[in-house]
Design brief:
The structure holds three protein chains of three kinds.
Chain A (H helix, E strand, L loop, with lengths): L4 H31 L4 H6 L13 H7 L7 H32 L5 H13 L6 H10 L7 H4 L7 H11 L4 H9 L4 H12 L1 H17 L2 H6 L8 H11 L5 H34 L3
Helix pairs in contact in A: 1-14, 3-14, 4-8, 4-11, 5-8, 9-10, 11-14, 13-14
Chain B lengths: L2 H25 L3 H6 L9 H18 L22 E8 L2 H17 L3 E8 L1 H14 L5 E4 L14 H5 L10 H5 L2 E2 L2 E2 L2 E6 L1 E6 H6 L11 H15 L2 E3 L4 H7 L28 H13 L5 H7 L7 H4 L2 E7 L3 H11 L4 E4 L15 E8 L6 H13 L1 H7 L9 H7 L5 H15 L14 H16 L5 H17 L1
Parallel strand pairs in B: 1-2, 1-3, 8-9
Antiparallel strand pairs in B: 3-11, 4-5, 6-11, 7-9, 7-10
Chain C lengths: L1 H7 L7 H4 L3 H30 L15 H9 L1 H31 L5 H16 L3 H10 L5 H8 L15 H10 L2 H12 L3 H9 L4 H29 L3 H7 L10 H11 L3 H29 L9
The chains are: A mainly alpha, B alpha/beta, C mainly alpha.
């Protein structure tokens, strides 16, 4: 008997409390998933129950999938995938370049650009929401995906910062040795830094992807034609038009819209945790 | 974490402050405030207003009573734009059904005239006007576009359609002048209406029977309405009344219901026509009483309800009466039937006093207008002509935008109408003939959105008990006057 | 080959290729995306926004009206003041609670066991999905009149509450949605906790400090820079709250959730009063900057930095 009874009880309480609280935390998400199999009457009149009282209703998924305004959710998911995909790739390429410059190259004005980068990190996006709209409007880009993806080609402060932190963990001796061997700084980026930055890049891929996937305000402002809607905007309009009279279908599509995020969570959980913690720390 | 990083963050925030500084010194200057705060000039320009009002009334007077029976055949031209290729852009807003039907009509037109290409831009209501505003700003609006009664904002970009009507491009033989007048304003035929509407009360006849209430009379009053709502709440336990269009009820419809011949807004959109806030008070008080007793849903419940007819509490059986537009009746009744909540019927809108004016008129739900800088105004006019007159096209559209304005189309649709649909058509016809509806303006100034929101806020405050109905009315009145001076 | 070129550098004028190898050239080539973006998509719009804020811009025309927008905001627009006030309330309600939860849970999960990392994952999930439209819609339904929360309250014999229709209650569901997403702050705290040397705790234990004392005497001070970081970032995000107001309450009831970002959106994209919207956004920026500055100023009193040569 290595462990005293008191310690055992303490441990039990710990797990009961932490586990119970954890269950409470994900209860809304579970409730949504189960809700996608309930009919309206069930959701309205037996709302305290977790499992369906009035049977399982698979047809919610088919009803929801029909979508809005003649476009199925297939269209909306494709749009989301295009927007999030392009934005994510662009972010990775541009941010890693900028991070390399700011972390590794001693060029004139580096400090100024570094503080500019930190400033944008803290700048509330709403301040430039209106003029940005005007700018995109003047180049006829409103209604297209351009306003949603273009900014990502210029690096995202959050990820630049995170990659810079990571760069500092890469021994300088590596690039110095390569430089002595006659490797240009351009090649050092592509041959040394980029491969070693891989964990940070994976984090960026994941976080940027789900941020963009979840984004509501951008599509709300820039996309008006249903054919161009992303999943989040479509979901909102779907809920406004028929979702409130068909909660089950709304929950079904809500669940579906979160599946990519769930997948990321399950597969890349470790990278996510590392990525988040590295931005707040180190340095 | 070392101090370096926190320093960097601080530097960044300091930068943000210094960047912001150039903006802030403007905001705190008080001197400018004194110079600009002037009393709103309410009386100025009232002459012009009455003139404009006269014109509208005249247009309406000349037109009443187009004969229904006399249907003339509309002949469409063999070709448009001399058979030369051209492309026009056509935009509208609406829901799924409308999108599908409208697209089909566009295809029919392009099949008939293969040289014309029409690119379509359907969207939802909010996105539509946002897009439109930017297009107006950029001077590049769609060639043909759907518009509601808010044309006042867009008069500068709309082609007057009168010449096209006169030369017969847009055939109006089967349209009574009264219906044409619903989109005639400020001396211009702004658009051709695609359907007409009237405000209506939809009620659940079964709930009325359950509560032992008589069905509403044609000239019932808001007082009657409130009594019914309370009784219905008492007996059924559900809301007596679902959403009333609160702003219309108190303002744009409410004011003309008083017997002193005023409207809420001036006809030329230059300001408020009323000179004191008192007009709004009784309606606000009624909503407050009903909300307090639970006969009327509070803001949270109204937010939950959503805006489509299928979502209305009357359709879901959670309320007995609601304010609606006549083109929503069918959808709501259908949903109510599917939900098994009872039979829905329609009644007139209650009045301020039983022998007073009704306060509302038949209005165009939406119409089609032509951009005044379009390259192909004739093609656009031909398209409108086809859209409103083609029997085949209207079989597809099936009156989804409201009661069609051409008698030929109405006659063509009539046999397929249900009992309820017929009663809606009759109702709209009846409202159209009311004498007092001529005095009701149909304009919607651009300030209306902000004023409507302010009204909603003030009403919420009254319901929360933080201000009185008089104070709320005064706040709305001041806010509105202020909005027009900017 | 490159070496030869390097050797010859001093003697010959530089070719273009050589120039491109200098640190300045390389730096600007790689930093170019950010610099271009910063100028075109941040600085230029900010300047434009400042200019718009001095006009009555409404898509169609932009007449210069001086400081009228600001005057109107400060003297004539009670909605603006109320919006600012409600945003403050929301931030004060949501941000501290969120950080307290994040810190406590992180503290309880410092053990490096498999089960602890599973728990961390579970607690982290909400901050992954919390910002989505899907969850906002779920929240709206949860707090509806006949929603889950009222259903549960009813089952245990408590009267239904009008969560989203009562302006005194409505901030709670919205703040709860924010607090619920404490996961990402928790992970940052957890990483910070790992960096506290165990020797500190061991020494304290020898001195006979209780676990509560250890938390307040060691954990909190050592973690204070991380707390500062989280506090600043969460406060800024808090002031920008938009999606919840837009989807769950549409700013109501009685403007109780008409948060400043939502108000800017309404002015700009619903009333098309872009000039006024821009003016409000500048005031918002100033307010956020001031609040951030205040946090930094007071932080000198409660943030402790390691001397750097402890070991």
């Amino acid at each position: 008997m290595g462990m005293s009874a008191k310690k055992k009880v303490g441990r039990f309480c710990y797990h009961l409390f932490i586990g119970g609280f954890g269950l409470l935390m994900i209860y809304p998400v579970l409730w949504m998933i189960i809700g996608s199999f309930k009919n309206n009457n069930d959701i309205m009149n037996h709302s305290a129950n977790f499992l369906p009282t009035l049977g399982w209703h698979m047809e919610n998924w088919a009803n929801g999938w029909k979508g809005y305004s003649g476009y199925s959710f297939g269209t909306f998911f494709t749009n989301s995938l295009i927007v999030a995909g392009i934005a994510t790739l662009a972010t990775v390429i541009s941010s890693s370049m900028v991070a390399y410059a700011l972390a590794r190259i001693k060029f004139k004005g580096r400090k100024i650009w570094f503080s500019c980068m930190l400033a944008t990190l803290m700048l509330p996006g709403q301040v430039i929401m209106i003029p940005q709209y005007m700018i995109y409007n003047s180049i006829n880009a409103v209604g297209t995906f351009v306003p949603l993806v273009l900014p990502h080609f210029f690096g995202q402060a959050f990820f630049i910062y995170q990659m810079m932190q990571f760069c500092q963990g890469i021994p300088r001796e590596l690039d110095e040795a390569a430089f002595v061997d006659g490797c240009s700084k351009y090649r050092i980026y592509s041959r040394i830094i980029l491969p070693l930055l891989k964990p940070s890049i994976v984090t960026t891929l994941i976080i940027q992807f789900y941020w963009k996937w979840d984004d509501y305000m951008g599509p709300l402002i820039y996309l008006s034609r249903p054919a161009t809607w992303t999943a989040s905007l479509a979901l909102k309009n779907f809920a406004d038009s028929s979702g409130q009279s068909d909660y089950g279908a709304m929950f079904a599509m809500a669940t579906l819209s979160l599946i990519p995020v769930f997948l990321i969570f399950l597969i890349f959980n470790r990278y996510l945790v590392e990525g988040i913690s590295s931005t707040g720390l180190k340095g | 974490m070392k101090a370096k990083k926190v320093m960097a963050l601080m530097m960044a925030s300091a930068m943000a402050v210094s960047m912001a500084a150039c903006g802030s010194d403007g905001g705190t200057t008080t001197k400018a405030a004194d110079e600009t705060t002037k009393a709103p000039e309410t009386t100025k320009g009232s002459d012009e207003t009455t003139k404009a009002a006269d014109e509208t009334t005249k247009a309406a007077e000349e037109t009443k009573g187009g004969e229904e029976g006399d249907i003339k055949e509309v002949v469409f031209p063999e070709k448009v734009n001399n058979g030369e290729d051209c492309t026009i852009r056509f935009a509208w807003w609406g829901g799924q059904t409308r999108h599908e039907r409208t697209e089909k009509v566009v295809e029919m037109f392009m099949e008939k005239y293969p040289n014309v290409t029409i690119t379509t831009e359907p969207s939802d209501f909010d996105g539509y006007f946002q897009k439109m505003a930017t297009l107006v700003g950029g001077g590049d609006v769609w060639d043909v576009f759907q518009l509601g009664n808010n044309w006042a904002e867009y008069t500068d970009i709309i082609t007057d359609l009168t010449p096209y009507i006169e030369d017969g491009t847009i055939n109006t033989d089967n349209i009574s002048d009264g219906f044409l007048a619903t989109t005639y304003d400020l001396g211009k035929q702004m658009e051709i209406s695609l359907g007409t509407n009237a405000h209506v009360i939809i009620y659940n006849a079964d709930m009325f029977a359950e509560a032992g209430l008589d069905e509403p009379a044609e000239n019932w009053t808001w007082e009657d309405y409130e009594k019914c709502a309370e009784a219905l709440k008492e007996v059924t336990g559900e809301y007596g009344s679902s959403s009333l269009e609160e702003f219309y009820g108190a303002c744009t419809v409410g004011v003309p219901q008083w017997e002193d011949g005023l409207n809420f807004f001036k006809a030329d959109n230059s300001g408020l026509m009323i000179d004191k806030p008192d007009y709004m008070v009784p309606f606000i008080e009624m909503i407050q009483r009903m909300t307090e007793s639970g006969a009327y849903p509070d803001r949270g419940a109204l937010n939950e309800m959503g805006t489509t007819p299928e979502q209305n509490f009357v359709a879901t059986g959670e309320a007995a009466m609601t304010w609606a537009l006549s083109n929503q009746v069918i959808a709501m009744a259908k949903a109510a039937e599917e939900n098994g909540v009872g039979t829905l019927k329609i009644a007139t809108l209650p009045r301020h006093s039983a022998d007073g004016p009704s306060g509302y008129a038949v209005k165009s739900s939406q119409g089609l207008a032509i951009y005044n800088k379009t390259k192909y105004p004739d093609v656009c006019a031909e398209f409108i002509n086809f859209f409103i007159n083609s029997p085949e096209a209207n079989q597809v559209l099936a009156g989804e935008r409201g009661v069609p304005i051409t008698s030929a189309v109405r006659a063509a649709i009539e046999p397929s109408l249900s009992e309820l649909e017929k009663s809606v058509y009759d109702y709209v016809g009846m409202v159209g003939e009311w004498e007092d509806s001529k005095n009701v303006f149909i304009n919607e100034p651009s300030q209306q959105n902000a004023i409507k929101d302010e009204f909603k806020n003030q009403l919420d405050k009254v319901n929360a008990g933080s201000i009185t109905a008089e104070e709320a009315a005064k706040n709305v009145f001041d806010f509105a006057n202020d909005a027009f001076t900017r | 080959m490159k070496k030869k070129a390097n050797a010859a550098l001093a003697a010959q004028p530089k070719t273009f290729k050589q120039r491109m190898q200098s640190d300045n050239a390389v730096g600007y080539v790689f930093a170019a995306p950010f610099i271009i973006g910063f100028i075109c998509l941040t600085i230029f719009p900010m300047g434009l926004s400042l200019y718009y804020s001095l006009t009555n811009y409404n898509f169609v025309h932009a007449d210069f009206i001086g400081l009228n927008n600001y005057v109107r905001m400060f003297t004539g627009d009670s909605r603006f003041w109320y919006s600012l006030w409600r945003t403050f309330l929301y931030v004060i309600l949501a941000v501290p609670l969120k950080l307290i939860f994040a810190l406590l849970v992180a503290f309880f999960l410092t053990r490096n066991t498999k089960i602890a990392s599973l728990y961390r994952a579970v607690y982290y999930l909400p901050s992954l999905v919390g910002g989505s439209v899907a969850v906002a819609l779920v929240w709206k339904q949860m707090f509806a009149r006949k929603g889950m929360i009222n259903g549960i309250l009813g089952a245990i014999g408590i009267d239904r509450l009008n969560w989203l229709g009562d302006k005194n209650l409505v901030l709670f569901p919205l703040a709860l949605l924010t607090v619920w997403q404490f996961g990402s702050s928790m992970i940052i705290f957890a990483a910070g906790l790992k960096e506290i040397p165990t020797s500190y705790y061991e020494a304290a234990e020898i001195d006979g400090a209780s676990s509560v004392q250890r938390f307040f005497k060691i954990t909190l001070p050592c973690l204070s820079p991380v707390i500062l970081y989280n506090l600043v970032m969460q406060t800024i995000t808090g002031f920008m709250v938009f999606t919840q107001a837009a989807i769950i309450t549409q700013g109501g009831p009685a403007d109780a959730t008409n948060f400043i970002a939502y108000y800017i959106y309404t002015q700009g994209f619903k009333y098309f009063d872009m000039g006024y919207g821009s003016a409000i956004s500048w005031v918002m920026l100033v307010v956020i900057a001031i609040v951030t500055l205040i946090i930094f100023k007071t932080s000198k009193k409660w943030v402790f930095y390691e001397a750097g040569n402890d070991d």
